[in-house]
Amino acid sequence: MTLAPSPSKQSDLAVEIHGLEKGFGKFKIHCGLDLEVPRGKVTYIMGGSGSGKSLLLKQIMGFVAPDKGTIKVNGQEVKASDRKQLKEVRKNLGILFQNGALFDSLNVYNNVAFSLKEHLRLKKAERDERVQQLLESVDLSMDHAYKMPAELSGGQRKRVALARAIALKPSVMLYDEPTTGLDPLTTMMVTNLIKDVSSKHKLTSIVISHDTHVVFNVAEHIAFLKDGVFKYVGPPQGVFRSPDPDVREFFSLEERHQNLEDT
Ligand SMILES: Nc1ncnc2c1ncn2[C@@H]1O[C@H](COP(=O)(O)OP(=O)(O)O)[C@@H](O)[C@H]1O
Ligand SMILES: [Mg+2]
């Protein structure tokens, strides 16, 4: 028997995943995932291509239903089949998809204000102020507000996409490969931005990545996915002490690459 969490006391866990299984036909992608995501921290979910990272995110969002097991966000179970409940759960979730595409035909202001207009009845002055604050929290100003996405650099587009994603003040932000395809400098900038925005807005951040270059600088918690299970869950430093050969291979291989690039 599980006790429902008291609404007055928020758990220290933002997301709880227990016994999660998911497959397609005879292909099992998730074979029993257990993960507790600490509130207010930056958690990295890592794993090779095709290991099921994006699929996990889709299940947290309720886009895809698990075959078995449960996912809770802020103590509320995510039920892909229950639209009303899903709407409640999603109020707490923000997501920055892979490539973080903006609406090309909308300027920066309208991109950032998009969900504000959709969900909140704000007066124009209030909305302007919110957009300004959001842009400032990603180190942009109102000078950028009337530019079109095509006029922005790759890094600026990421900033705008992030401002848009946090517009409704989610308590949990999900990022799917936010730095894939970016040059090393922009990667570092975006990675630090995620950390800054998380601490500024007291967000729980879940970042999906296969890139171990930057993870040790920003992650406060790491989960490594391989062969349908988490092979490591814990603090970043603990990775180096893991006896699991898969963990050692995934992280030290990448580390060797980094050393080669550094020399
Ligand atoms: N809707 C789907 N139908 C069939 N197979 C899927 C579906 N979604 C994901 N998969 C498969 O699940 C595996 C994991 O995919 P994904 O989560 O996208 O991996 P990644 O870790 O690279 O993000 C892949 O083999 C993919 O082909
Ligand atoms: Mg993916």
In summary, what is this structure?
With about 260 residues, the protein is of the alpha/beta class. It has two domains: about 1-90 and about 170-263, Rossmann fold (3-Layer(aba) Sandwich), CATH 3.40.50; about 105-170, no CATH class. Helix content is about 35%, strand content about 25%.
Structure, explained:
The protein has a six-stranded mixed beta sheet, sandwiched between helices. It has a four-stranded antiparallel beta sheet with strand order 2-1-4-5, with helices on one face. The longest helix has 18 residues, at 245-262. The protein is globular. The chain contains eight helices and ten strands. Helix 4 packs across helix 5 (154-165). With 263 residues, the chain is an alpha/beta fold. The model has no long low-confidence stretch (mean pLDDT 90). Strand 9 and strand 10 form a beta hairpin. It has two domains: 1-92 and 171-263, P-loop containing nucleotide triphosphate hydrolases (Rossmann fold, 3-Layer(aba) Sandwich), CATH 3.40.50.300; 103-169, no CATH class. The structure holds adenosine-5'-diphosphate (ADP) and magnesium ion. Adenosine-5'-diphosphate is lined by residues 24, 29, 47, 49-55. Magnesium ion is lined by residues 53-54, 176-177.
